[in-house]
Predict the 3D structure of the following.
Amino acid sequence: MEFFEVLKERHSIRAYKAQDIEEEKINAILNAANSAPSAGNLQAYKIYKVVNREKKSKLVWAAFGQSFIEKAPLCLVFCAHPQRSAQKYGRRGVELYSIQDATIAATFAHLTATALGLGSVFVGAFNEKEVKKALSLPRELKPIIILPVGYIDEIPYSSPRKSLNELVVEID
């Protein structure tokens, strides 16, 4: 799919078919995330690939009952690795760059899923401690985004977007 078509077709998908995702598509998504830019090229993040139904069920609970998470055949959990970024950037690396790194990697995964005919959605509403507990994450990692991925089972509607005049401020 051509890049601007990907942007046009990208939606937040919360309904998935009970259909496994081909391993080559999963690898393409993960490779795209790996290719994302990061501060100082440190890649201050980790990606957890979750396919186990019990673990996904725990993520649903951690995400305040968002049941579509469990229905997705794949969930990718993007975690910031603040200390990796801190080694070069100190406090700013901890508080910002590592979070940006994880978010940009998740965005690349999200767009790649669209390009491959899959759907996904950014889930940021969750209890961080419960996500860490559900996946037995190391203490130093900070969960940033849960990205359920799967074949689309419901055609989404397009949500309205703000005009560029509302978003862009030109500085003279």
Q: What stands out?
A: Residues 40 and 60 are 34 Å apart (CA to CA). The chain has one domain: 10-154.
